[in-house]
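We emphasize that the prediction below concerns an isolated chain of 444 residues; any contacts that depend on oligomerization or on bound cofactors are therefore not represented. The input was used exactly as deposited, without trimming of termini.
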Amino acid sequence: MTDLYQSQRAMRQMRRQAMQRGVVAILDIGSSKIACLVLRFDGSGRLSEDNSIGSLAGQSGFRVIGAATTRSRGVQFGEITAMQETERAIRTAVQAAQKMAGVRVDHVIASFSGANPRSYGLDAQLELEGQEVSETEIAQVLAACEVPEYGAEREVLHAQPVNFALDNRSGLEDPRGQLGQTLAVDMHMLTVDTGTVQNLVRCIQRCDLELAGIASSAYASGYSALVEDEQELGAACIDMGGGSTSISVFMKKHMIYADAVRMGGDHITSDISMGLGVPMANAERIKTFCGGVHATGADDRDMIDIGGDTGDWEHDRRTVSRAELIGIMRPRVEEILEEVRTRLDAAGFEYLPSQQIVLTGGSSQILGLDGLATRILGQQVRLGRPLRVHGLPQSATGPGFSAAVGLSLFAAHPQDEWWDFETPVDRYPARSLSRAVRWFRDNW
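Result of the prediction step, given as a token string:
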């Protein structure tokens, strides 16, 4: 058995223990903010029998009892660049959320963007000889998937069966209990850079927290920002964060593709800072309150007070027209959206039955962005906010919290992954995941 298989199983076990104790923290580690939610479970430790994602908001089996955010430090492009600063920021967010919840939390489930995600589609089939499909057969057909050589410095983050077929009857969510001759599976595998995940794990451990799960924020955002029909028929979730823009494509309620563009809202802020000669903090404020991507005639006359370098507003006042500000912001926004389109084209997004695109994340709130995205991506585009979950404070219902809320749903009701099945040792593919996730070995 490989380290990865065992470590992922160990995390699932730890998640179950945390849920039995009743509380778990959710940590979304982004480039501009770190968000922490504390969840209390109702004691059942699982969802209702209705597994459909649309039912999650009302019957999720948990409520949010604490929420906090802090400015992210030491994170760039969704990856940790300064361990101590990130550790301090995580401690700050977790302690504030614990204080609001009035309870101590030991276990966290974390999500992150960046790490150069790469998607693979795998498939396999198994002869059944007419017997009933059980857990064992599912484990065997998953083990039969031929895993590509994805590189020594890469790790598998997600490995999910997304479709089963029994004797050419495709589209089965769960074939257990059915009879047939041939069982086939399609699996989606997502790999990320080892170093990025290693640093994240180490940082969480330095905060005296136990890691009970880890997920891609692209996956988490899609989980909460796409409505049930979109997840079923095919949709893309574009999560525009501070340091990176995550892309996830869902079909039949499963993520079938993920990628990331190493640009986000911070790059737009930086362009404003350089273009107008103002500090980053000023540029962020100007972007948030006055920014946009679509100029009209009125914007030539609409003047924005940007202040000067000395901080003396009376003697050092400068103004810029809103049209000029839009002229600085729009090229960068177009560049990000063009990159997103390239990634969606590579994923074959145009072949899905429905091609809805949902924009979410903190940077999706730029005025006029949905119209520009419709023009560049050439599809139906809407702005998405996370699903409502019990106890979520009003301050955490915006698009910047899609990943954190999605991670809460993932914690309460994780979808089946390869390591949830008892793969027989003799059937385990020898060359597939053997090098994966060595860094967990000493930590359990």
